[in-house]
Amino acid sequence: MTKSAKRSSTAKEKEPAKRAARQSTKSRSVAEMFAQQKGKRATSSRRNQDEVSSEEEEEGSDSNASDSEQSDSEVEISSNKRRKTAKSLEKRGGTQSTRKQRKKKSTTSPTEVSITHESQLLEQIPSEQNETLYDQVSAPDAEIEEIVAVWVERYRRDKGDALRNLVNFIIRGCGCMNAVTKDAFHRDDIAIAVLEELQEELAKFPQPEYPVISKSKTGKILKRNILNFFAYMVEVCQHDIIYDGSFIETLQNWLTTISVYRPFRHTATILTFRVVKSLCTFADKVNKELQVVTQQLKTENERQTNRARNTQKKRMLEQRSQTLNRKKTNLEEYLNDFFEGVFIHRSRDVESVIRAECIKELCLWTQQYSAHYTNNIYLRHFGWSLNDSNASVRSEALKSISRLYQIEKVVSCLNDFTKRFKRRIEEIALYDIDLSVRLHGIELCYVLFRHDHEMISDECRNELMSLVFLDNERLQKTVAPLVKTVMEAKVLDPMMEETEKALGAMNVDGASTTVAATSTVEKTWISFKCLATFLAERIADEKAKSDSTIDSLNDSLNTTTAAVLDEENGDQLVANAIEALWNQMPMLQDYESLAQYLTRDHSSSHQQDEEELATAGPAAPTPVEECYRLSEEEEAVLIKVFATSLKLITERGFEQVDGKTKDKKKACDEAQLESNRSTISRYLVQVLPRLLTKHSDSTSKMLKLISIPQLMNINVYAELRMQTEYEELLQIVIKVYIGTTLPELLQNCAESLHHMFKVDLLADVNERQFPELMERVTAQVRDACRGKDIATARFDDDDIHATTTSLLRLDYLINFIDVTDMMEESEDMDEDVTELVGHFVDRASYGYKIEKQSSLSAMAILFRYLVWKCERVSVDPELKEVGRAALGKIERRRDWVFEKFTGIVTMTDITPLAAVKSNAFGILMDLYWIFSSDLFATNGLDLLLLSCSENIQKECENYIVSELEKWQEALEKKKNKEAEDDDEVDELEGDNEDDQVEYSGIDLVANVARAVTAKVLDYKYMVPIAAEYGHLEPDADDIIKAFIEETKKDLIGNDSQTDEVCHMYIGILKKAFESHVNQAPRSIDKSVSFARLISQTLHIADQEDPARHVAPHVICDSIHIDGINFALEKAAEHKSHRNRADMGVALKFFKVLSVLVKPLNRARDVAKIHKHIEKCLEELDLTVEPNDKEWDAYHTYIKDIDMILRKKGLRYDNQHVQQQAQQQQ
């Protein structure tokens, strides 16, 4: 019977007959073979299950924690290979780097294993044989199309032989050098027996690096060729061979039976997926063609004609329809068999890599053959994978669902699935512990919302939108498209409709429009109003959440402070949101439209009539129409948006809005940024004064507006010849600075004034305005102090407010401009401003909490006073005019100022605030730094040269130790409170106290490090602080690390200076060892880490200058000899008290010294260390026990220093020590 006749008869038979015809071939389905051998199947099934269970127990703990494609056995193989490679290199006498070894390994081909025992089913493939299908495909230059054509031709001649070659090809592709014999292949149910034997024998060997997982170049080429071979083979066979009842059934038989041995299981899974992918493509083509034929047949049936031509066409369409139906049925049956035989089992595989691959492939199948796989029977596997314990599987499921929603014809079939698993998707987007999975969940929520606005719950949507305010770049970038889409759908579109209706009603009524704007600007205004509404609502929600917290702290926070905290929080929220939406919303870069919108009058509830507008003058803001009007909160938020947008433009430049791109935009160069700054400045020249004038009565709005001049290029005023406009702007800023009492607004004004004061092209305007400002500021200080005995007076609230504000205003001003001449004027008072400020410094020692800010400001003013005087002396070193006058003031005021700060730091009968005392200590160190500098060592000023005396340093040491102990206690208290379940108010109060102590502690570390670096304090005073490295706060560790790195400059000077630094190093290590090292194994880690930092610093210092090196004998004597004395003396002390455990702890110090061996490089130093150790051991009556674990660190240290000798071809002779030990025995 011919093939066509056989297919025709088969088409006429019913389903049972068709299955019987398939059973007549030599290859049958797995289910039928299992049904024939019930007894054998039960036994083998139980054995397979036991093997799978044991393998899962061994691999389960590692598979979920890693996404790597290598199993534990593969790692062992790789390790063995590396060891063999290293041994062979040693034999050859060569050494290679790890990178070269890794590169050499990557060029090797995948490992192949074989079984050598006698078998009736299997035969070993000779290594010299290279004519198999595997050898042809594995060739780098393999012509896959020709190989497939030859195999197909062979299949048409002899099915059995061709299929046996294909099965052997699969086995070889799994990394096995065995093949099924010709006689065995024709037996019934051979697949189960062969695979059982193979898997049972191969399980005894380490798993090979089979092609599917191989990372080598050869392995990757082989994997590509194998997959291409199967894909092209199925494509060539799509018309007839896949329907012959042998080809696909044989593949199913072998691929679905593999289940235990991982190389077989993984390879079979990959090959199955490639076959199914091709079958999906064919099935989709057949289905589309069937739909066309069915439609044509329907059209022919509807025609009312009996023409022979139409009847013949109808008959042909019916035959074609039957053929396509049969093909579709067969293909879908194949797909179902593969799905049930492979996918269902592999989607639950112990290997997360295989599970993720299953989900990825199912998505591809659904995309290719959506008519079949959009059934919930298949889609539910995506939902089940959302609960997988491995992050990569959950991530792949989320990405697959997102891809399916990009296909229009598939979306309608996903509604039921999405409703079922919607809650789980929302949970992942909000709470998943893996950030990458969470990001994919957010992206899927965005896709769902874009498809259907009601798909995501309101609660989830609101929480997701709140993520845009977090200071997390990845979360912000991911959630930004969702925020934009929600804003457009929920706020912008309804607002646009309302605006169009309102404007339409105004035109119908004949109302005149007072806003002369184009439709584009009006649409932009609506977008800005939409953004302001969204941000205002969100900020209000955040404020409502923190209201209870603020209420609970009313006793410690006044209303103004609480308002400032709210304002700062709101500013940060707006800044985070704008940065996240910057690339999503182009209107944020349209600063001109936003500025025009903000200059309009939004305060009136109805339109002003023409008379009111006429009497208001040309400078009055134009009223805005009701549909565009902003509320007070929205206008305040939009001003923050305006300031943030300007800042981003000046820092990043104008960026193209492209939310889909994943590449980071290249930063603009400095020239382009400066051009952008100038462009913005030219526009703000006219607009900024109007904004400042309009919102001058709102403190919250002025906080942002007053800082905008800092973003401008002030020189454009000179370029545009607009000195008058610049003077107007300067007067506005000065007016705000003089009139405001809010510290944050004062600071912003001062920074803007500083930026404007530096402009040389407008110096003539500054010279007219700034002297008046200085006079008014100093006058305010005098007015606040008038009629009061500052040193002893009791201030009420009004007095404190007046003095604090005036001193703070002077503090900010004296930071960037010399106000000392104005301060020396007393006018109608007995004392000048400098003396008044000195009285406030005296009051700082009283410890009044309410006067904290005035004390800090007063100390800063006195310090700046002396700094400005010294600056005048440095400008006029010959002391002709300015320098001579300044020198007289310094001689008069220096000791007076030093006395005040020294008293605050060293006196024990006063109790200043911790922050005040810390600030005073920092200023005192800085003053000693200035007056011990070269400025006063030359030019005949040596009488003013002043260094910190030993007594003062001792007093400072007491302060340092005391503050360090307080800081440590506060940190310990904070740690204990975090572990307890206290009330919310108690926690917040405790946190505030700890934060305050933490801040002063960080200042303590910075001040001491700066003073020691400047040679104000000796090196030894850094020891107690640096000894706490790793036990304080991360910021403190960073300062200590920077200080140690800075000392490298002093290591290559004279030997005495090097000796001081090295003594400090070993002192820090000894102090840290005594304080923190105990019997716990990890207690020494921080000390070792610090020793590594010291070793690195010594090495860098020695390599910096080829002509000068760190003195090697100093390293030997000051570090190693001193450290050995410390360790052995401690050990001997504990031994005398019979405390062997503590003796072992003391000997751990040699582990620290081992890290410091690297800077040693002379043999004589090593010999000196050996002799010193022998001497100490003899004097302290210590005996080194070779096998005692307590002496391990000592033995390691000896080996490390002996390595220096070995590299030089030397060896230390200690035979005399051994002889003495033998004589003693």
Describe this entry's structure for a reader.
The chain has 1225 residues and is an all-alpha fold. The chain has 53 helices and 2 strands. Strands 1-2 form a two-stranded antiparallel ribbon. Helix 14 (262-302) packs antiparallel against helix 15 and helix 25 packs across helix 29 (632-652). This is SCD domain-containing protein. Residues 110-128 have a biased composition (Polar residues). It comes from Phascolomyces articulosus. One of its GO terms (molecular function) is chromatin binding.
Number of helices: 53
The helical percent reads: over 70%
Annotation, overall tally of beta strands: 2
For the residues shown, what is the average pLDDT? 80
What is the 3D shape? flat
Strand content: under 5%
N-end to C-end Cα span: 103 Å
Strand order of the largest sheet: 1-2
Radius of gyration: 42 Å
Low-pLDDT parts are 1-109, 510-521, 549-565, 605-618, 658-667, 981-999
Most strands sheet: 2 strands, antiparallel
Label the structural class. mainly alpha
Keywords: Coiled coil
Domain SCD: 343-428
Biased composition (Acidic residues): 52-61
Biased composition (Polar residues): 110-128
Task: Spell out the key features of this protein.
70% helix, 1225 residues, ARM-type_fold, SCD domain-containing protein, two-stranded antiparallel sheet, STAG, single chain, mainly alpha
Topology:
Elements: H1 3-12, H2 15-23, H3 30-36, H4 38-63, H5 72-92, H6 98-106, E1 122-124, H7 133-138, H8 144-157, H9 159-173, E2 178-180, H10 182-185, H11 190-202, H12 217-236, H13 247-255, H14 262-302, H15 308-346, H16 352-368, H17 370-373, H18 376-385, H19 391-404, H20 408-411, H21 415-431, H22 435-451, H23 458-466, H24 473-509, H25 519-552, H26 559-581, H27 591-599, H28 610-616, H29 632-652, H30 670-694, H31 699-705, H32 715-719, H33 723-739, H34 743-757, H35 763-785, H36 797-814, H37 820-823, H38 833-843, H39 852-875, H40 882-906, H41 914-931, H42 950-979, H43 984-1013, H44 1023-1026, H45 1034-1046, H46 1055-1076, H47 1085-1104, H48 1112-1136, H49 1140-1147, H50 1149-1155, H51 1163-1179, H52 1192-1207, H53 1215-1224
Antiparallel strand pairs: 1-2
Helix pairs in contact: 8-9, 8-12, 12-14, 13-14, 13-15, 14-15, 14-16, 16-19, 18-21, 19-22, 21-22, 22-24, 24-25, 24-26, 25-26, 25-29, 26-29, 27-29, 27-30, 29-30, 29-31, 30-33, 33-34, 33-35, 34-36, 35-36, 36-39, 38-39, 39-40, 39-41, 40-41, 41-43, 42-43, 43-45, 46-47, 46-48, 47-50, 48-49, 48-51, 50-52
